[in-house]
Specification:
Layout lengths: L26 E3 L7 H11 L16 E3 L24
Antiparallel strand pairs: 1-2
Length: about 90
């Protein structure tokens, strides 16, 4: 089974949120837009995942993070907003 079989799945380690088992949770993609490279890099650092070899994990075009990792349960596009970056992790 691959993750896309069930729709969106949160990439955060130990987060069990997925489209098939949650309600009122949104899933956000890691932006691929060239003018938002800085935001993407900050999201990657915030998630704090590593590959098996210890290198920094990189999301792909299907990778999602759920709204529960953002203050107010939603991401913001405003760089000064506390919800611009995911900051809520268990």
């Amino acid at each position: 089974m691959n993750k896309r079989t069930y729709g969106n799945v949160c990439c955060v380690v130990n987060c069990k949120n997925a489209q098939y088992n949650t309600k009122n949770v949104r899933f956000y993609s890691f932006t691929m837009k060239p003018h938002k490279v800085e935001q993407r890099e900050k999201w990657i650092k915030a998630v704090r995942r590593r590959n098996a070899d210890g290198s920094l994990w990189q999301p792909n075009k299907y990778t999602k993070i759920c709204s529960e990792h953002f203050i107010g349960n939603a991401k913001s596009e405003h760089p000064l907003s506390p919800s611009f970056l995911p900051t809520i992790f268990l």
